[in-house]
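Fig. S4 source data, part A: sequence.
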Amino acid sequence: MKWVEELRRLLRKVGREKPMEEAPGGIPCEEAAARTFEWLDGELDAELEAKVGAHLETCARCYPMLLFEQSFREAVARVASDEKAPDELRDRIMDSLEEEGYTAPGASRG
């Protein structure tokens, strides 16, 4: 996760270099980066969605990050749909969680 912190640090620096009124979509890189996942998940109100989308899709600094995030999500979805973890692995994970005090809702494992 060090790369995420480094990306955030760089985006904060970039956001300070460009005045808000000149930033694509009217928002700085730092705000667009912070809202990327909400934008990808369709969780923003219409006005903010438009601003973040305009920024991410037109900013030379942020567009590569957007492409990476979209590609990463697609790759994870592809892998997740193709393979399932073995039952033994699931059982070991659940046993470990239960040892730590977690109880799955509706669980009746013996």
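Fig. S4 source data, part B ends here. Residues 71 and 77 are 10 Å apart (CA to CA).
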